[in-house]
Amino acid sequence: MASRRLALNLHTALRSKAAINAVKRSKQSPLTRGLATPVSYGSKTESTTLSNGFTIATEHSPWAQTSTVGVWIDAGSRAETDKTNGTAHFLEHLAFKGTQKRTQQQLELEIENMGGHLNAYTSRENTVYYAKAFNNDVPAAVDILSDILQNSKLEPQAIERERDVILREQEEVDKQLEEVVFDHLHATAFQGQPLGRTILGPKENIETIKRDDLESYIKTNYTADRMVLVGAGGVPHEQLVELAEKYFSKLPAEAPNYSGKIVAEQKQKPEFIGSEVRIRDDTMASANIAIAVEGVSWNDEDYFTALVTQAIVGNWDRAMGNSAYLGSKLSSFVSQNNLANSFMSFSTSYSDTGLWGIYMVTPYLDRVDDLVHFTLREWSRLSSSVSNAEVERAKSQLKASLLLSLDGTTAVAEDIGRQIITTGRRLAPEEIERVVGAISEKDVMDFAKRKLWDRDVAISAVGSIEGLLPYDRIRNDMSRMLS
Prior knowledge:
The protein is an alpha+beta fold and about 475 residues long.
């Protein structure tokens, strides 16, 4: 005990002496804030492209002890045909089932031993494989990512096992009404086109997809010109470039000639079709409705204006205990008149188009027509009467949402990968804040006049929807003059 007390006293004395010396030094030079400096301050996105077209993009934070590395591929369910719809998602499942170098058990053990995290997901336009690990384990993580992307075995037994897994996953998705409504919204807005297909694919495809379909999809889409290796955290840009040279330099630069026609068809701009799909089920306790106009692409100059306009309409959910006075005029009106339990405005973007709209859930089945009517009246108002206070509130919410979401290396990697793969460059957080800050009420009204006023709508409705008015009546509300 005495020795511990002596050590503590000595430690305290040393700290006191150091503090005195620091004060003395401060008389000659000002104190600096070493450890208080934000880790991400001054970070920038660096990018390099290899000779085969493979891109590496990073944001280096020297003080971060972990890194997220991943490969973003410019191919998802949109890169499929009607016959092969579901292939991209199927491949995602098979990626972790063993490669030429590693069995499934070895793959899982290697990740666990490094304390890492390996994951993947598929969207309509992208497939992503990523890993989070300590900085020292980044080379091993990149090795694993390259292995599962280039050397997956795609064994017949694994394919058969995953069929059942994916079919069960589809059953679970079918129970999530929001997912169902949005899948139907895409299907009707972009009917007969690649963007209208679901990510999981129809049941008959899941049951019949063959190894040849999977290999063909890889040859067509897993090419260097459609891939970006992203790093965020403690991994330096130069290190990731060296790892890319080692593991990805042999990727083919582009798809074989035989698939060029297919790739070209995938890149055609989809046609938005004013239409509807209704699935009436009177046993359900609510009406679940999505209404959308054609939105904007990631590259569109109206991209951030669309997000601000969406934020003005806002979101509201009675179950979350949200006040009726959130600033959104629609939330106040819907709450006070008991028109719905929740609504969520959205602005979903793709490489060349998008959907801008609202998703509503209401148990008040005799007021469905009022809910839709007054929602579209609010859309009409945006074309002629938007206050500065509304716009400033929406801008603040949007900036907070966009910038606070960049919390952690995985979120930053996701932001870099999505932007580089879709637009070719990444907007820095400072740029986003500047662009959003410059949007005025005039910009919002101009956007609404061009994109909302008297535009065709796509409607997806599921549940007890007897009270939903016919399509032409709803369409007429898109050009109703405000009284």
